[in-house]
Design goal:
- The protein is built from five helices and eight strands.
- The longest helix has 16 residues, at about 45-60.
- An eight-stranded mixed beta sheet has the order 1-2-3-4-5-6-8-7, with helices on both faces.
- The model has no long low-confidence stretch (mean pLDDT about 95).
- The chain has helices at about 20-30, 30-35, 45-60, 110-120, 140-145, and strands at about 5, 10-15, 70, 80-90, 95-100, 130-135, 150-160, 165-175.
């Protein structure tokens, strides 16, 4: 998946090192929106931090351990990311994570983007299971797997550290054999 067109003109593509400045600016503009849910936000201090993330995405691809892609608007601006955390080839399983800028929400973009990754995981890779974890209180994030037919499987208590606090995560699962 080097590039994938989404309905409405947005698309998914691999990150380029030249995205570091724009990606940093996007995160910086969305700190208040992202920080309650994304534990990495306080660790992003400069475009160099985003460059390291982009380079890590390239290593992930080279290691055949999934990928991260940029969500790009029809106008060509970065709007967020979606990707596979890692792939367990032995278990034919993966998990998906995502975030979207506040001003890009409510248009179905993330549902389409995650749906594209689900199709890739079950189709091209032949995986059997995909998980999504979302904070109990993050209603927008939790709505994505529900729309895509994932089943709520339970809550992982205090599963994600955010500074001095821990968030409970709702776990959603989808099997290749589940109806969609």
């Amino acid at each position: 998946m080097l590039r994938h067109e989404l309905p409405g003109g947005d698309h998914l593509r691999l990150f380029e090192e030249s995205d570091a400045e724009e990606m940093y600016a996007l995160v910086d503009r969305n700190r208040a929106h992202l920080e309650p849910w994304m534990p990495w936000v306080p660790l992003v201090h400069s475009p160099a931090d985003q460059l390291e993330f982009i380079r890590a995405t390239r290593r992930q691809i080279a290691d055949n351990d999934g990928f991260q892609v940029a969500i790009v608007t029809a106008g060509g601006a970065l709007a967020g990311t979606v990707g596979f955390h890692r792939v367990s080839w032995l278990n034919r399983a993966t998990s998906i994570g995502y975030w979207l800028a506040a001003d890009q929400q409510g248009r179905g973009t993330m549902t389409q983007a995650v749906g594209a990754l689900v199709g890739h995981a079950f189709g091209a890779w032949g995986l059997h299971r995909i998980e999504i974890g979302a904070a109990v209180d993050n209603a927008r994030s939790r709505a994505i797997p529900v729309r895509l037919g994932f089943r709520e499987e339970g809550v992982r208590r205090a599963a994600e550290r955010h500074g001095d606090r821990y968030l409970d995560l709702v776990v959603y699962g989808l099997l290749s054999t589940d109806p969609r």
